[in-house]
Amino acid sequence: METIQCSKRPKNGSFDDSDNETLLPGLPDDLAQLCLSSLFPSLLFSVCHSWRRLLYSPSFPPFFSLYALLSPLQNPTTISHEEVAHRNSIEFFSFDPLSAAWRPLPSPPQNPPLHLLHRHPSFLSRKLPIQSLTVSNHLVLIAATTHNFSPALSSPLLFHPESNRWFYGPQISTPRRWCATGAVRGVAYMASGVVGSYYRGDVARSMEQWDLNQKSESWGWENKAQLKDGRFSREAVDAVGYRGKLCMVNVKGNAVKEGAVYNVELDKWEEMPCGMVAGWNGPAATMDEDVIYVIDEVKGSLSKYDDEKDCWVALIELEQLKRAEQIAAGRGKICAVSANGEKIIVVDVGEERAAARFWEVAPPPGFEVVAAHVLPRITRQQ
Predict the structure, then answer these.
(1) Where in the chain are the domains?
(2) Region Disordered: what ranges (predicted)?
(3) Are 167 and 272 spatial neighbours (Cβ–Cβ below 8 Å)?
(4) Which residues of 79-92 are buried (b: 16+ CB within 10 A; e: fewer)?
């Protein structure tokens, strides 16, 4: 079998960065790209610079990367209230699985100024929620808190990896410090939540949707069927999209909880199946909106939901998954933020094997992980 090499690759094996390097000798680049698109990204990355550049070009099918909201590790007691009021405690990074390297995302727009607070010096033991989700290959920030305990976002803040840019979505009618939020089929949902330091019954029962499938000039929030009560306003809730429905529970961990299911097509709230709510004992996420995974915070077990039997099927139990704070699912991988955001545990559930394979990804030095997401890699300018 003949081995095909990139042109201009020197005999010593080092890469040649010359601009006239072709993808495949004897073929125009458009045909060469079609041939190379069937190869594994890890192979393209390791052979030569021209193939590596192709991997990150806008015209090449993107591989997927890990995105994270990170908070600097520092002693909050050393930060004055004035400093808290003028700083953003969150930074945004992407982890490239091919180069095994973290890279910062471009800075978000500062008009209006962005102040997302994860810890406050007056409340050292409590983490303030910063709610984010992925919708239609966008990273979306939807609710957070400022230094004066007010809602930090009057509009959702989006990052689009393909264009490598940030922008704001439609104005939120009632911005929240936290809420119940999730996505189904490219539509983002915001339900219940807290506006400030006081309770508002109308907000606690509310439900709104924003369809990202529409053109941006038509974006807006639309009121939907209300919740029966305000029980989902107690804390930040990560709702998960599952087969045309939005599923959520009102309390985290192993506490007694109430579940709710929103039927998107019927615009109707339904009772959650008993087996589903009984085993929902930690952070949850869905793979392609078809399979729900949950981590039991106490046992450290990862399970998936069997809708026919209304039960949870255990896949793996790990010490590292105990007290997991948040999970994301994508491309056959479960990415779990460990206790205190010390690392991200990646579990491969995409292949049938006796024991699921897992590995750890450490955040950049000096940071803790607040949330993780799976999205297409960032496009780089050639």
Answers:
(1) 28-61, 62-376
(2) 1-20
(3) no
(4) eeeeebeeebbbbb
